[in-house]
Amino acid sequence: MNILADLAQTIDARKGANPDSSWTAKLLSRGPEKCAEKFGEEAIEAIIACTKGDRDELVYECADTLYHMLVMLAARDVPFDEVLAELKRRSGISGIEEKAAR
Ligand SMILES: N=c1c2ncn([C@@H]3O[C@H](COP(=O)(O)OP(=O)(O)OP(=O)(O)O)[C@@H](O)[C@H]3O)c2ncn1[C@@H]1O[C@H](COP(=O)(O)O)[C@@H](O)[C@H]1O
């Protein structure tokens, strides 16, 4: 999990950096909608890899998807810690139980 938290920090530090030298800064400069679009594209590529049963491609595309998810969160100034806190809140609550309680 540390690698994701470290990556989120790196991405935050790229806010306002030069888009010519940072892919993250380039994405962020294009706005949250573009960041969301890129996240969606990468997620679809992961879905395709899973459907094809291409294990190596699935790993690669999931890494791309996680990176672009963090960029999307940064684009809306949502700290990654908030996502982790939400996951923590859910831990120990069965998805089946949660759905039944709705
Ligand atoms: N994890 C990543 C990471 N994963 C993917 N990418 C980039 O995301 C881009 C994905 O682009 P696409 O596949 O969409 O290719 P494209 O050429 O844009 O394609 P089109 O959609 O434009 O046709 C590539 O340029 C990848 O290099 C990443 N860029 C950066 N990181 C991390 O972010 C850190 C900071 O990077 P910079 O902001 O570039 O300094 C790096 O040290 C890495 O740890």
Task: Annotate the secondary structure layout.
Layout: H1 2-13, H2 23-29, H3 32-52, H4 55-75, H5 80-90, H6 95-100
Helix pairs in contact: 1-4, 3-4
Bound molecules: phosphoribosyl ATP (PRT).
Phosphoribosyl ATP binds at residues 7, 10, 14, 22-25, 64, 67.
Outline of the structure:
This protein has 102 residues and is an all-alpha fold. It has helices at 2-13, 23-29, 32-52, 55-75, 80-90, 95-100.
Which key phrases capture this entry?
102 residues, mainly alpha, Helix Hairpins, globular, binds phosphoribosyl ATP
Care to describe what's here?
The protein has 102 residues and is mostly helical. It has one domain: MazG-like (Helix Hairpins, Orthogonal Bundle). It has 6 helices and no strands. The structure holds phosphoribosyl ATP. Residues 7, 10, 14, 22-25, 64, 67 line the site of phosphoribosyl ATP. The site of phosphoribosyl ATP has 9 residues, from α1, α2 and α4. This is Phosphoribosyl-ATP pyrophosphatase. One of its GO terms (molecular function) is phosphoribosyl-ATP diphosphatase activity.
Mean pLDDT: 94
CATH superfamily: MazG-like
Tell me the radius of gyration. Answer: 16 Å
Category from helices, strands and their pairing: mainly alpha
Q: Could you please say which CATH topology applies here?
A: Helix Hairpins
Q: Largest sheet, described in full?
A: none
CATH class annotation:
Mainly Alpha
Small molecules (ligands, ions, cofactors) in the structure: phosphoribosyl ATP
Elements, N to C (H/E): HHHHHH
**Relative strand content:** under 5%
Q: Helical amount among residues, as a percent range?
A: over 70%
Low-confidence stretches: none
* Number of domain units: 1
Q: How far is the first residue's CA from the last residue's CA?
A: 30 Å
Total number of helices: 6
Q: How would the global form be characterised?
A: globular
According to DSSP, the number of beta strands is 0
